[in-house]
Amino acid sequence: MRARVLAAATAVTLLTIGVPAPATAAAPALTPAAAPAGVAAAAPAAAPVPCPRLPAPKVSRPPRPTPPATTPEQAAVGGEALAGTGLVTPPGSPVPPAVTATTWLVADLDTGAVLGACGAHVPGTPASTQKLLLAATMLSRLDPKQVAVATRADLDIEPGSSAVGLLVGGRYSVETLWLGLLLQSGNDAANMLARLGAGSSQAGVAEMNAQARRLGAGQTHAVTPSGLDGPGQFTSAYDLALIARACFADAAFRRYARTERTQIPAQPALKKGGFQIQNENQLIYRYPGALGGKTGFTELARHSYVGAAQRDGRRLVVTLLGAEARPVRGWQQGAQLLDWGFRQPRDASVGRLVEPGERDAEAAEPKQAAAAEPSRTASPPWRGPAGTALRRVGDGDWRMIVPLAGVLALTVGGVAAVLAARRSRSRRRGRRRA
After folding, report:
1. Which pLDDT does position 227 carry in this prediction?
2. Is the pTM of this model over 0.85?
3. Nearest Cα to 330, choosing from 127, 26, 162, 91?
4. 128 catalytic per annotation
């Protein structure tokens, strides 16, 4: 009987210790007003340093679309120092030149070091600098010697926008199209290259967005292959630097970007003669060591610019968005920022350009860790049916607790009844003996 009582007591003890206690609520974050004496509250973030700005004339422009929200993870790509909206430069560096651009960045093409920036991750509108993303996506896919026929859809561009002058039914080599894209900023050439590389212009845009993700340019979203404005089309000075770095790693792109002029071939079947086009990027004519780049302009985006140059074995790139052409043209603002960058020590840095595929690898790491977690979980300490039942009780499974509680109540009641009966018999025997 004592063994039964001990078993019942043991079951009661197991049920009591097996039910988990409720989790305690997390303590609220301390604010300066709520922090107790002797406990320091978090210091407020420092105000952003204003970027040196040139006064620019007021211009009329379409309403600026609202960009998607920048997440803290996006804002910190390349380094925490790049997360702000203001100026960031290496300690002790000279003040960068004043420009009209709303955002800009200077980086080393070879090491990836960011030498300085103003609003590196602030979203902006790319205009024709988006053609660099088209180049980064399609250059390796297309044979420069391939000859293709222009279609009417290729020439479906905004009236008055920049064009090479392709003709429906005209036959053009892919190399000619790349030169038309980079020298003359041809929107017709952009449509045709996107179609040749992916099957259609819109399929080409989808491939461009996939390439932006691979490069780590998470704030870049293309809507048109040419950079003509479209709803939801954005980039940033940082993303443009990633894209430009991928372009300048391609020998064909470097050759095209430095070409001063080329001939668009005649089309005998259409009875049209050929003509010459020139490179619109003044950097290659006027800046020693210029490697080329890309200009851009729309009424919405204003002036955007990407330029690169080499000096003393060092290659730098500058990107800028939202500039005005007065009092200083976009390429000249880029040249001034390049001069400032070349004056920095070779080890100067406020951040870095991430490598292609790096952000995808970082995003995959938590998933891989989660998938591997079950193999690292310790084996359950309880075995067999009884152990499984007790484990479920410990996990708070009421479907197991209620039946066990009923069994326990019946057991305890039975034990109590037996004990009471034995005590009653003992009293009767005592009375007989008396």
Report:
1. 97
2. no
3. 127
4. yes
